[in-house]
Specification:
Strand content: under 5%
Order of helices and strands: HHHH
Length: about 120
């Protein structure tokens, strides 16, 4: 199996984890939102997070050469899920998107700083 196939499998696995964790954490903290709504929210946030990281990569190397490293997507997802859990506990489930924006920023920043160190 080639590297690109493994990267896509890793991306899909990360997106699946996000899609499952968002409704589970939301349900544990807040009984009000429906499972379907938060599952759709989790899936949308997984795609948006990947798109944020892809946009950052495309800005550096161009749209045709842009790749999202699986490690960056996983790091951004972990940060977003942890921060999201805290924000949901404090303010409600509508704060998931804010956590994912922050996770995307940190994930993009780690990718940029890593590429500068290797140069």
């Amino acid at each position: 199996m080639d590297t690109e196939t493994r990267a896509w499998q890793s991306h899909l696995a990360t997106a699946a984890v996000i899609t499952v964790v968002v409704p589970v954490v939301t349900r544990l903290i807040d009984d009000e939102p429906s499972v379907l709504a938060t599952t759709l929210l989790g899936a949308a946030l997984a795609v948006c997070l990947w798109l944020m990281l892809f946009s950052g990569a495309a800005g550096k190397v161009g749209i045709h050469k842009a790749r999202v490293p699986a490690r960056d997507y996983q790091l951004a997802a972990v940060i977003a899920l942890l921060l999201g859990g805290v924000l949901v506990a404090m303010a409600g489930y509508l704060f998931w998107p804010a956590a994912f924006i922050m996770g995307g920023v940190v994930g993009s920043f780690s990718s940029i700083s890593e590429s500068r160190e290797s140069a």
